[in-house]
Design a protein that fits this description.
Layout lengths: L1 E4 L3 E11 L2 E9 H7 L20 H13 L8 E5 L5 E4 L4 E8 H6 L5 E5 L1 H4 L15 E7 L4 H14 L5 H11 L2 H7 L1 H11 L9 E2 L10 E2 H11 L5 H4 L3 H18 L1 H5 L9 H20 L5 H8 L18 H13 L10 H10 L1
Parallel strand pairs: 4-8, 9-10
Antiparallel strand pairs: 1-2, 2-3, 2-6, 3-8, 4-7, 5-6
Helix pairs in contact: 5-6, 7-8, 8-9, 8-11, 9-13, 11-13, 11-14, 13-14, 13-15
């Protein structure tokens, strides 16, 4: 049963044990109490880059609220919370036995930090505390599980495992979490495309610095989603070239960064007005990544890897219209990206002075 004393201490009867190595307290409490003692740590690229939770869907939260207040017979999986501030709880009991969990509500209210975070159940808890006008507190009892003693990275990993296996989270948010919790050397080795994409967005010397979107809805729509950029880099690395032969991921990163500098100087308008151009979105983004495999391979073959060398090659062909209604209108997906790359690369001339298209014409004439 739930017992509140002077609105400062919430005492809950619980069972202490382990779940797959995680120390937990399991019990029952009013939904409004669970809502008041916990907070969601919502990721925001600008204001809370260390956050764990995806953005709240007000509709999903309202549906959850309506469900519990209108159904006499219903069921929810347990709410999963995590203690971050040890001062917010007092554990009375031993693992493998029943005990009492004391929640210091006074400390939680006064703290500017999140004392108990919501790992799973944020939408069910959002309106339950009764603090939003039009939503009365929900006093119905529900089951909960409170993790104790986890590090922040361990909490993030559990959040990823739970949410990715249930209601699929944003792939960009998922990639961002993976890149944050993975040791750098491991990420370079196991997912070089993700490592390169993340570095391109975070490196102050990169042409894509602060242009990459990591999963929060507050980011401007003109930014590149991390997953889209990662996919493009994956395409760039998917064909055997001199770039893929480079033995070090950081070396690949330097060359790819130079390529994006060359693109920026080739079509600066796409950086100035990204909404009007397709170069940094959709098939256009993937198209320049496929094209990058060709351009980088050619310049590396000349013993060069600077953005100036790549820019000279890009400028050796015609000037394309990269606007939304331009030369590549109607092309979409991976197939459209390959088409864009093929159209552009066929018109480029290397230092030998002959483009593939010119060579093709000469062969066909004879």
């Amino acid at each position: 049963m739930t017992n509140i004393s002077n609105d400062e201490l919430l005492k809950l009867s619980v069972v202490y044990d382990r779940v797959l190595g995680v120390h937990v307290a399991r019990g029952y409490a009013r939904l409004c109490d669970l809502a008041r003692m916990s907070r969601a740590d919502v990721f925001d690229q600008e204001t809370n880059p260390e956050g764990t939770q995806r953005d709240l869907s007000p509709k999903h939260a309202k549906d959850a609220y309506d469900y519990i207040i209108t159904h006499e017979l219903g069921f929810w999986p347990e709410i999963f919370l995590c203690v971050r501030d040890k001062k917010s709880v007092e554990v009375n009991g031993n693992y493998g036995a029943c005990g009492e969990l004391a929640i210091n509500m006074k400390h939680i209210r006064r703290s500017k930090n999140i004392c108990i975070s919501r790992v799973d159940g944020n939408h069910r808890l959002h309106y339950a505390d009764g603090e939003t006008p039009g939503y009365a507190p929900v006093e119905k009892m529900v089951s909960f599980c409170l993790a104790i003693g986890l590090s922040r990275n361990q909490e993030i990993r559990l959040f990823m495992d739970i949410n990715n296996n249930q209601r699929r989270m944003s792939t960009t948010h998922l990639d961002n979490i993976i890149s944050r919790i993975s040791p750098e050397e491991k990420l370079k080795r196991e997912d070089p495309a993700l490592y390169i994409a993340k570095q391109l967005g975070e490196d102050a010397s990169s042409p894509l610095f602060q242009r990459v979107h990591y999963g929060s809805t507050t980011s401007p729509p003109s930014k590149l989603p991390l997953r889209a950029l990662k996919t493009g880099i994956t395409y760039m690395l998917s064909r055997p070239t001199r770039l893929t032969s480079l033995p070090d991921t950081d070396a690949k990163l330097k060359v790819i960064k130079n390529y994006f500098f060359a693109l920026k100087n080739w079509v600066p308008e796409a950086w100035e007005n990204p909404k009007e151009y397709i170069m940094l979105r959709g098939a256009g983004l993937w198209g320049i990544c496929f094209l990058g495999a060709y351009v980088i391979d050619k310049t590396l073959g000349q013993g060069k890897f600077t953005d100036d060398a790549m820019l000279r090659l890009l400028r050796s062909g015609p000037q394309w219209d990269w606007t939304s209604n331009g030369d590549f209108k109607g092309l979409s997906g991976r197939g459209g990206a390959v088409k864009i790359s093929d159209l552009v690369s066929k018109e480029l001339s290397d230092e030998g002075g002959v483009s593939i298209q010119e060579l093709y014409r000469k062969i066909m004439i004879q």
